[in-house]
Design goal:
- It is a single chain.
- By secondary structure, the chain is an alpha/beta fold.
- The chain has 14 helices and ten strands.
- The chain folds into two domains: 4-74, DNA Methylphosphotriester Repair Domain, CATH 3.40.10.10; 176-354, Winged helix-like DNA-binding domain superfamily/Winged helix DNA-binding domain (Arc Repressor Mutant, subunit A, Orthogonal Bundle), CATH 1.10.10.10.
- 42% of the residues lie in helices and 11% in strands.
- The strands form three sheets. It has a four-stranded mixed β-sheet.
- Helix 6 (122-140) packs antiparallel against helix 7 (144-150) and helix 8 crosses helix 9 (212-222).
- One of its GO terms (biological process) is methylation.
- The active site is at 36 (nucleophile), 314 (nucleophile).
């Protein structure tokens, strides 16, 4: 069933030509067969003729054509496309505001556009890319100094500190034999750390989540400190499932999981997995579903303690009034994920205008 609160919010953004939704959602107009950005200057359709999509590919797959005025199929702003391509070409480079100025860009403009479109600044993305380079080098078995240099860090201490902030451990503690393996997976919404053994996925988190180091330390303690760098077949399966999810091919991330939590938390997480892509629940509805209608705050706390992002879809829980609240991965990601999933749970086609 169509989520009217979400529909009304996007329709209001369409009427206001709200640029904060650029890259978050697209509108398909059933009366014309065309899809547009929400900032498109064209005449606005009636609300009952609107369908919402997270990507141009989803809109095209549903039979809509791109608008010739706002060019929604272009995907990302040219500034973002140019600089992300430059970052991909030089992932180990220590990017600075001086580099941006040399390329003819105002650093404050770059920061604003990247945060608006990707939820983080270009320089934050560049730092994450450098850490990934170092992580890949350590996984290959390179010496620590080689990993440090490949990551673009001048000092070993700087590399160790940056690595420890991400993982909760300095790199030398993750190089030995281990039962669990940690690796980096790229997604359209940013890098994720996946930790798995040969049987199950134990953790999947966005790398910029503030609680990630704490979660890794707790998992390491449960595993007796035996977390190393690398991947397993479960990691490969996770990466393939994420690719299918973001490509609009599969809304359910069906993976073998090992949940680490109290019986109450695991009951909440199991109920979260029962929410289909394209649907949302309030915290109160979730509490009622597990037979604990007065435990709304405890349910919210369990939601926040989830360490398997997207697979245990805590982003599908919203406020009673429909507001986007309580997502540790960033509200900008929550908006995009729900927009993406509208295609999975789309309502039947509405009648065209007469």
């Amino acid at each position: 069933m169509r989520d009217l609160t979400y529909h009304d919010r996007l329709y209001a953004a369409l009427l206001a030509r709200d640029s904060t939704y650029d890259g978050v959602a697209l509108v398909g107009v059933t009366s014309t067969g065309i899809f547009c950005r929400l900032t498109c200057p064209a005449r606005k359709p009636r609300p009952e003729n609107c369908r919402w999509f997270g990507t141009a590919a989803q809109a095209a797959a549903a039979g809509f054509r791109p608008c010739l005025r706002c060019h929604p199929g272009d995907g990302v702003p040219p500034l973002v496309a140019q600089l992300t391509a430059a970052l991909a070409a030089r992932p180990g480079h220590r990017w600075s505001e001086g580099d941006l100025l040399a390329l003819g860009h105002d650093p404050s403009t770059v920061r604003r556009v990247f945060r608006q479109h990707l939820g983080q600044s270009f320089l934050q993305m560049a730092r994450a890319a450098r850490l990934r380079q170092g992580m890949a080098a350590l996984t290959r078995g390179d010496a620590m100094i080689e990993a440090q240099l490949e990551a673009g860090f001048d000092s070993a201490s700087g590399f160790r500190e940056a690595f420890a902030r991400l993982f909760g451990h300095p790199p030398h503690l993750m190089r030995g034999a281990s039962d669990l393996r940690a690796d980096w997976i790229d997604t359209p919404l940013g890098g994720m750390i996946a930790i798995a053994d040969d049987a199950a996925l134990h953790l999947l988190e966005f790398t910029d989540r503030k609680a990630l180091p704490q979660g890794l330390r707790r998992l390491s303690a449960r595993a007796g400190g035996r977390i190393g760098l690398g991947r397993t077949a479960v990691t490969d399966r996770t990466e393939a499932a994420l690719q299918a999810f973001f490509a609009g091919r599969e809304g359910r991330l069906d993976l073998p999981l090992h949940l680490h939590g109290t019986p109450f938390q695991m009951r909440v997480w199991q109920e979260l997995q029962a929410i289909s892509a394209g649907q949302t629940r309030s915290y109160g509805q979730l509490a009622s579903a597990i037979g604990r209608p007065t435990a709304v705050r405890a349910v919210a706390a369990a939601n926040g303690a989830n360490r398997l992002a997207l697979v245990v879809p805590c982003h599908r829980v919203i406020g009673t009034d429909g507001t986007m609240t309580g997502y540790a991965g960033g509200l900008w990601r929550k908006e995009r994920l729900i927009a993406l999933e509208r295609a999975y749970g789309a309502a039947p086609e509405l009648p065209h205008e007469a």
